[in-house]
Specification:
By secondary structure, the chain is α+β, with helices and mostly antiparallel strands. 30% of the residues lie in helices and 16% in strands. The strands form three sheets. Strands 1, 2, 3, 4, 5, 11, 12 and 13 form an eight-stranded antiparallel β-sheet that branches. The mean pLDDT is 97.
């Protein structure tokens, strides 16, 4: 970076450090404000433009129990941000002609044709219309960390709706569904494909299946504690009152992932392509940088453009019970503020993903920009909470 400004600002529990171009000072100020005003504990923020890092900040506490600070190389689980890493692996394979996104899943995974799923296309797995957002029968504890168990159960499961006819967020199942297609057509595990074809070439600290040697760098996740007496959303009401609903099954029948799996060694070591990617803001921003610049050697420009197109949208997501918009493995801006429900208001041309608790990564081709924000304290809501949205809003002011 040229003409950079260094940052070292005290915040509750620690210090925010890093550097950035003066143009992005309002975004840096918003990052600090999250610690001061919104209860941020530990976090990182990074922005790239035209492939160059223009803002890179980190700070606070990685582990409040021990007082360990959030350092430059601290990483954490980024939950559903992992979905775009998984999707990118599949898009690379499709670009080579190894899989047809509009062809049947059963062409490469014959067992998947069971129980009325023979017409499910690969694209339906990517855009949350496949009808398999959860499993009905209880999963044994630890099933989430056993790839063969999960893909076997999913292959045998009947869809909740006719594939392709409804949108419902495949919050956890996405990882095994898309990941098994990656495994079948590449002959390698999802985590291996991502490491060899994306994270390795880009030089990212980003894993789907964390090596034990990196365990000491991980910031444990601090779960969200609901506010007593707060009104329940439609999703929360379904989870609490309708045990057989898609929402409840998605949230509760997780095979050991929730509520503690993501803070365990077995949970971090597994390859859960919907939820257990581990990185920091720098890893997310640099992951999206090529996609914001015509593919950057990872994909052709026409593939990126098609990949980012909205292919499923609904006013009532069968899982989340809010309006949602999805591309092929990516979220698009979801501005639900007029309805008074959860939103993720992104730049108009941006595509990326939010993670449970509020982390965020996206590419904005209009500004050739990659964005990443990660944190360890989960916040309220299903999409972006006030911390992440304040950063996106500040970024928009910087760009304007």
């Amino acid at each position: 970076m040229s003409a950079v400004r260094s940052f070292e600002t005290p915040v509750p529990g620690g210090v925010v450090r890093g550097a950035g171009l003066p143009r992005f000072a309002p975004l840096a100020e918003a990052f600090v404000a999250n610690f001061v005003e919104r209860g941020e504990v530990g976090a990182s923020l990074c922005v790239t433009v035209a492939g160059q890092v223009v803002l890179d900040l980190w700070g606070g506490l990685a582990d409040p129990d021990t007082g360990r600070p959030w350092e430059e190389d601290t990483v954490s689980i980024v939950f559903s941000n992992t979905k775009t890493a998984t999707a990118l692996c599949l898009h690379r394979l499709a670009e080579r002609g190894l899989v047809d996104l509009d062809g049947p899943v059963a062409a490469c995974w014959p067992e998947y044709a069971q129980a009325g799923k023979g017409g499910t296309t690969v694209r339906m797995l990517l855009d949350h219309t496949a009808g398999l957002p959860a499993l009905r029968a209880p999963l044994p504890d630890g099933a989430a960390f056993d790839w063969d168990v999960m893909v076997g159960r999913l292959a045998a499961e009947a869809p909740f709706w006719a594939p392709g006819t409804r949108t419902g967020y495949h919050g956890l199942t996405f990882g095994w569904l898309v990941g098994e297609v990656v495994r079948r057509v590449s002959g390698r595990s999802l985590g291996t494909v991502f490491a060899e074809e994306v994270a390795g070439p880009l030089g990212l600290d980003y894993w789907i299946g964390l090596p034990e040697a990196a365990e000491g760098r991980v910031a444990p996740i601090i779960p969200y504690r609901p506010v007593r007496g707060a009104p329940a959303s439609r999703f929360e009401a379904a989870v609490a009152e309708e045990p057989d609903s898609v929402s409840a099954l998605y949230f509760r029948n997780t095979g050991g992932w929730r509520p503690k799996g993501f803070n365990s060694r077995v949970g971090r070591a597994a390859e859960i392509g919907a939820a257990n990617g581990i990185t920091n803001a720098r890893g997310l921003a640099r992951f999206y940088a090529p996609l914001a610049n015509g593919g950057g050697g990872l994909l052709r420009p026409d593939t990126v453009a098609a990949m980012a197109e909205v292919t499923s949208a609904t006013h009532d997501d069968a899982t989340l019970r809010i309006p949602t918009r999805f591309a092929a493995g990516f979220m698009r801006s979801m501005d639900n503020r007029a309805r008074g429900v959860d939103s993720a208001v992104l730049p108009a041309t941006a595509f990326g993903h939010v993670g449970a608790g509020g982390s965020l990564g996206f590419a904005d081709p209009a500004h050739r920009l990659g964005f990443g924000y990660t944190m360890n304290r989960m916040g309220e809501g299903l999409l972006l909470n006030a911390r992440g949205q304040s950063l996106v809003d500040a970024l928009q002011r910087c760009l304007a």
